[in-house]
Amino acid sequence: MNPAHTIDLVVLEDYAALSRVGAARVAELFRAKPDAAVVVATGNTPMGLYRELAAKRAARVFGPGELKVFQLDAYLGLAPDDPRSLYRWTKEAFLDPLGIQPQQVVKLPGDSPDPAAACRAYDDAVVRAGGFDLAILGLGPNGHLGFNEPPSQPTDKTRVVSLSEASLESNARYWGGQGRVPKQALTAGMNVLLAAKEIVLLVSGAHKRDVLVQALAGPVTPDLPASYLQTSSKVTVLADRAAWDEHG
Ligand code: PGA
């Protein structure tokens, strides 16, 4: 029990160390709880951790287990098997390398004819799983978690959101131009993410420095959704030195 909700900040030498330490932590949790419910981010930052984790799985550091894996976010209008979908990214980076079977996965179907109902079904599945045991998250340049864009309230459920200019801009590189990035998305809600029993936030690079300071030490505000991590019970931030300058 930690009434002060202190965030455990671990500063690593570089991205490789961040990925190794992150993978060791996640593997330990998977070993201790083989049926853990875990929500996993896409984006660049967790890719090193996922590669390390796949190597640990191949070396049988943890077993196939019965993990339940939840997709964190999805572009509205894109089917899960669309090569540009975030599900495909999750599949290639996390599910396939770990040998996770389709029945272990809860998707956010971007192409659902009734996205609001799909979001409710997702939240129901989170409840049935007993909440997330682990959330592996990245930090958006605008302080978003998943696609919980500013402003987001801590009570916000899984829902359809409009992407901010900042997100459209930072995702333009994957789409060959900002104009091609879908304007809306489905995102796991703030409420289910913040209630995770353990949150690992991965932050790498000097371009995240300002937003990380704001998230950890600035005011808790809907304008910077990641600042609500200050109110969650078990948060570990793994940052490399470029993202957190202890002397700065
Ligand atoms: P990144 O994305 O890991 O590619 O920096 C983080 C995010 O936007 O949530």
Coarse morphology:
globular
Q: What kind of sheet is the major sheet?
A: 7 strands, parallel
Please list the strands of the largest sheet in the order they lie side by side: 1-10-9-6-2-3-5
Uncertain stretches of 5 or more adjacent residues: none
Q: What is the C-alpha radius of gyration, as a whole number of Å? A: 17 Å
Q: How many helices? A: 7
Structural class: alpha/beta
Provide the list of bound ligands, each named once. 2-phosphoglycolic acid
Percent of residues in beta strands:
15-25%
Helix content: 25-40%
Helix-strand pattern = EHEHEEHEHEEHEHEHE
Q: How many strand segments?
A: 10
Distance from first to last alpha carbon: 31 Å
> On the 0-100 scale, what is the average pLDDT?
95
Descriptive key words:
single chain, 248 residues, alpha/beta, 7-stranded parallel sheet, 3-stranded antiparallel sheet, 7 helices, 10 strands, 33% helix, 17% strand, binds 2-phosphoglycolic acid
